[in-house]
Design brief:
heterodimer; A: about 290 residues; alpha/beta; Rossmann fold; Alpha-Beta Plaits; 2 domains; 6-stranded mixed β-sheet; 4-stranded antiparallel β-sheet; 9 helices; 13 strands; about 25% strand; elongated; B: about 300 residues; about 30% strand
Chain lengths: ~290, ~300
């Protein structure tokens, strides 16, 4: 995709020049807050929104499966009826998968006769996945598929996506959950319609300087206060019983100095990785490094 | 501060044959942050609605701020703030008009109201958006407005149902700073969330699953006492392969990739596990004991705690 731009009627510039590539059988993610342009990008890829710029696609429009942000299946049809309906929409049937096999794989076979409207949030998303796959697409587009889904269902859903990717499916997904981005092969960090960073999670981590040390403390609040007074640290943040200390220093030296200055055993201090959320906040200037 | 703000016993709600909330007991001390967690459909919202006196319990009893939830729900509602999961303000009014409207409902007026409004607007940083149409505001701004309305009448107890559902990471951190400030000012907060990292800031957490309470304690207690099996983490660059191998090993449960490592529960012989991994060219040095986080606890309780 080259220099994609999209301005909505009314003048909102949703995308301001975005270029990237997605490789075959890759799990590719757009990560960013509300209003960053994630949904617009997914809709452009799905062929739903007019845009400027060029897309060079190795697939045809009917080889795309799409899960929109809002649940958009028929709530007054059963699970099976929804699947059959979506399969019937695609005339080119040679690549399509058997609904039975898919429902079994996704774990919905037992619920075939239930009305889609009566499914839980996690199961609705699974049904959306079946309906997006039943015509045998090469590319799966998902817009925030795990929002509002509890951690257990979220893991189940992602595990299914990993399986599909192993079979050769290319997956392009968006998510506001920064931790979820760590599961992607490659990530585009979007902010205000522009790309902030593009790369593997390791490359993203390499883009920020300094280290994070994780300190486990019995009195985290006072440990954080003491840490904030040290002149060699950039920031200290509280995460429950842990304090994350951001500094520019060799990790071993940091561990020794923190252990001494905070009066904590060095076994309670370890090097941590920057989270995608840290990286996002650093890159948007909302966090000191 | 040890006064009980919420105290419920045997709370049950049935809808036909379906038991949404099943014999639930818990208490919340004044000034604390109480996290109420569970999968979708576990009974969280129904419980909150019973505390508010909107849904009548089928069985059980309880007091909120000293008032009986069965008989004195009007007194309760005047003293609590409730931010629902779905945005429920007027989209065709401006934020300023929404605030005026809800202030009117709580009987706030005159100079006292203006002072309070300025304070709340400042607190949620809404100043730049007061005269735009609410329906056209970004999700994060609407969420801030919803919080402002919830706090208008200075409630002593605040229910926040997934307040950070779909907001920007910076705003998410800010919301939690506000929650901590409210608690430091003596207010009690009951909050639900699917983000396990943020609920670390709660003083106490209850897990609900299929209507039943299955875990209770401070984040520290939950992390150290809940998981009865070994929690291990394997660092590897061959993630997909490692997942496959782990799934085939007896005693390995719920392997799941977490960044560059895979976390899993293990109930078996550690030496045998290391042996099997070595056969697949995974070094045992990359296998280590992981410290449980609240997500591990949540997954464990949801899968094991129900029995």
């Amino acid at each position: 995709m080259q220099d994609l731009r999209c301005t909505y009627p009314g003048g909102t510039e949703a995308l301001r020049g975005v270029s990237f590539e997605v490789k075959e059988a890759e799990l590719f993610g757009f990560v960013g807050p509300d209003g960053a342009g994630k949904t617009t990008l997914i809709k452009i890829l799905a062929g739903l929104v007019a845009h400027e710029g060029t897309i060079d696609a190795a697939f045809s429009p009917d080889e795309v499966g799409y899960i929109p942000q809002r649940f958009s299946l028929y709530t007054d049809l059963s699970v099976r009826e929804n699947v059959d309906f979506f399969q019937g929409l695609y005339p080119r049937r040679e690549r399509s998968r058997y609904p039975e096999e898919l429902l079994e794989f996704i774990g919905l076979a037992r619920f075939q006769d239930r009305l889609a409207g009566a499914l839980s949030g996690g199961m609705k998303q699974k049904l959306a996945l079946v309906c997006a796959l039943v015509h045998g697409p090469k590319v799966l587009l998902m817009d925030e598929p795990t929002v509002g889904v509890d951690p257990v269902s979220r893991r189940e859903f992602l595990s299914l996506v990993f399986e599909l990717q192993k079979e050769g499916l290319t997956v392009v997904s968006s998510t506001p959950y920064m931790d979820e981005a760590e599961q992607f092969d490659r990530v585009v960090l979007l902010h205000d319609g522009r790309i902030l960073l593009n790369g593997t999670v390791d490359e993203l981590r390499g883009s920020v300087e300094g280290v994070v040390m994780r300190v486990y403390a019995t009195d985290p609040l006072s440990t954080q206060r003491r840490a904030l007074k040290l002149d060699y640290i950039r920031d200290a943040q509280l995460f429950g019983d842990r304090v994350h200390v951001f500094l520019h220093m060799d990790p071993e030296q940091a561990c020794r100095r923190l252990s001494h200055d905070l009066e904590l055993p060095s076994s309670e201090i370890e090097r941590a990785e920057y989270s995608i959320e840290d990286i996002f906040l650093i890159q948007t200037g909302k966090q000191r490094v | 501060m040890s006064e009980l703000c919420v105290d419920v016993r045997g709370l049950t709600r049935r809808f036909g044959d379906f038991v949404a909330v099943d014999n639930v007991d818990f208490e919340i001390r004044a000034g604390r942050i109480f996290g109420f967690l569970g999968p979708n459909g576990a009974g969280k919202s129904t419980t909150i609605r019973m505390l508010l006196g909107i849904v009548r319990p089928s069985e059980g009893q309880g007091r909120v701020l000293g008032y009986d939830i069965l008989k004195e729900s009007a007194q309760i509602r005047a003293r609590v703030g409730y931010m629902a999961q779905k945005f429920s303000l007027y989209e065709d009014l401006t934020p300023s008009e929404n605030l005026d409207f809800f202030a009117g409902l709580s009987g706030l007026e005159g100079a006292a109201w203006h002072k309070r409004r300025d304070l709340v607007v400042e607190m949620v940083k809404l100043g730049d958006y007061l005269t735009e149409m609410t329906g056209s505001l970004p999700g994060g701004v609407r969420q801030r407005l919803a919080l402002a309305v919830t706090l208008l009448h200075e409630p002593e107890l605040i229910f926040l149902d997934e307040p950070t559902g779909n907001v920007d990471p910076a705003l998410r951190r800010y919301f939690w700073e506000l929650i901590v400030q409210l608690s430091q000012a003596g207010k009690t907060v009951m909050v639900t969330s699917h983000y396990m990292d943020e609920v670390e800031r709660c003083d106490k957490i209850c897990f609900i699953h299929s209507g039943k309470l299955i875990g209770e304690g401070s984040p520290r207690e939950l992390k150290s006492n809940t998981i009865k099996k070994e929690l291990l983490s394997l660092s590897t660059s061959r993630r997909a392969e490692a997942m496959q191998v782990l799934k085939g090993i007896k005693g390995v449960e719920n392997p799941f990739p977490a960044g560059t490592s895979i976390r899993f529960l293990f109930d078996g012989n550690r030496t045998e596990l290391e042996e099997l991994l070595k056969r697949e060219r995974f070094s045992s040095e990359e296998l280590e004991q992981a410290r449980p986080n609240l997500e591990d606890v949540f997954i464990y309780l949801s899968k094991e705690g129900v029995a």
